[in-house]
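Hi Q.,

Before the meeting this afternoon, I wanted you to have the alpha-D-glucopyranuronic acid prediction in hand. No need to reply - just skim if you have a minute. The sequence and ligand are here:
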Amino acid sequence: MSMIEKLIEERKLPELLKFADGRQVTAENWEERRQEILEILSLEEYGYAPPAPKETKVVSEDAKMPYSDFAGKAVSKTLTFTVETDCGEFTFPATEIVPISDKPRRTFVLINFRPEVPDRYYPTEELIDTGCAVIQLYYNDIAFDGRDDFKGGIAPMFDRKKYTWGKIRMWAWAASRVMDYLQTADYCDKEHVAVVGHSRLGKTALVCAAFDTRFAMACVNNSGCSGDSITRGKKGERIRQITHNFPFWFCDNYQNYIDKEEEMPFEQHWLVAAVAPRKVALGSALEDEWADPESSYLSACAASPAWELNGKAGFVHPDRMPEVGDYFAEGDIKYHLRGGKHFLSRKDWAYYAEALKSI
Ligand code: GCU
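Predicted structure with the ligand bound:
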């Protein structure tokens, strides 16, 4: 047994490639298993979301930005979207920065903490230079990131008895509405759209791509607890703390596993695997102990069989734990460990842009 296999075995993870009824998962029934995983994660962790609306309408476009058009290298626009909900219309904005080119652009959907462009998590000019377009939504425009009894934003637009979604799923759902629009956007290379987010929004990006197969890749930065990090044996943040500080990110059932991680009928590497056979790029930072880089890395290792099953490479990595500067990009799961703290840095973006251009 390899060193990594041993470390994974010590975490006593629930089986990824076995159905709840004990059947073995094969390449042929992987999609059925993927649906089962998504069902369990909806029931136990993130809650159920309403189905996609019939239409996501662009109701206004504002081509005027308080910034220049980045030395004439890109066109920027703020769009307003409207969707029909069970309680009338819900409207939210998003800002796109599209490099000037006559070819379709690979596109990032960035779920961000602030609406401004540029932003400290959005190095705009560097990204324009990669040739990729970015469309950014601001998470508080969808649902307020705080205790509001689900009274604001999209939350009260649906019956909570029917749809138990926490805010992570609400933000992810909104990123899917941006994807609805991208299906109609001339500039967008529809086969190469990635969803990207940092920390709580890294969790969101991963959830979004797991549920929405139109995304070719999820770029998941420092997502940690309830994101890409395996919960069993995890250091730093645990279910007790996350559900105490941010109960509204999840459905109520998640609280059943406070200090009972070993009883969870699921694990976070299942969420990573639910993106298979598409791509995932995971990013950790050495000093981000709260997120626990080791548990993210082992999660990538443990998720790999979902790709291997489909005859794909999965996660290609050496038989050791990662070191600062490592970037394992060969397989379908990409992973990097950079030095420094919890942040979505230019360095992380450089890896994600390289990954999006390589797929
Ligand atoms: C808190 C939280 C983390 C989260 C982070 C963030 O630290 O405990 O789970 O990832 O905030 O979103 O920045």
